Amino acid sequence: MALFIAYALGMGLLVGTAAVAVALAKSSLITLMRRAGRFVPALAGVLMIIVGAYVGYYGWWEIRVLRGAPAEDPVIEAAAAVQQTVSNGVAELGARGLAVTFLALLGVVGMIGLSRLFLRRRRQSEAAARGPHPVGPRKSVD
Questions:
Q1: Which of 48, 52, 78, 134 is the most exposed place for a label (fewest CB within 10 A)?
Q2: How far apart are CA 35 and CA 26, in angstroms?
Q3: pLDDT attached to residue 81
């Protein structure tokens, strides 16, 4: 039950962070996503290929080991080393460290969003103080 609650809290924090980031930096995020949007499907496809290749390789390695082949494999050992490093880092931080890290990241996102909001409002108020732009007759382009 504790694992389920921890998982639910972690996922809730991630989704909540994403929602706050989108709410605070909506216009800049939309602009960035429009610019990067054409690359996202390609990057997601490459990532899916890499993950799928690893899962397939791991399954093939597991079948070989079950049939009596040696368990030593550089790809599996490298993945296990990365997993162990991440796991050790999370364990070393502990619950408080993870909470502080998460709150710090959330604070940074919030500060960026608020600074952009204030900058946008300042520009709008300066533009309003200058008055409307004069609009003259349009020149025809022949």
A1: 134
A2: 14
A3: 92
What token pair was written down for 94? Answer: 């502990």
Say which DSSP state 67 is in.
T
Q: Three-class SS of residue 68?
A: coil
Region of 12 on the Ramachandran plot (φ > 0 left; ψ -120 to 50 alpha; else beta) = alpha
Check if the beta carbon of residue 17 is closer than 8 Å to that of residue 102.
Answer: yes
Side chain identity at 48, as an amino acid letter? Answer: M
Q: From the CB of residue 113, how many other CB atoms can be counted at a distance below 10 Å? A: 19
Which long-range contacts does 44-53 make (Cβ < 8 Å, 24+ apart)? none
Question: Which tokens hold the place of 98?
Answer: 């993870």
Give residue for tokens 């162990």: 84
Q: What confidence tens digit (pLDDT) does each residue in 69-98 have?
A: 999 999 999 988 988 898 888 888 888 888
Tell me the average pLDDT across 48-67: 91
Q: Please, are residues 18 and 33 in contact by the beta-carbon 8 Å criterion?
A: no
Q: In whole angstroms, give the CA distance from residue 109 to residue 96.
A: 20
The C-alpha atoms of residue 26 and residue 8 are separated, in whole angstroms, by 26
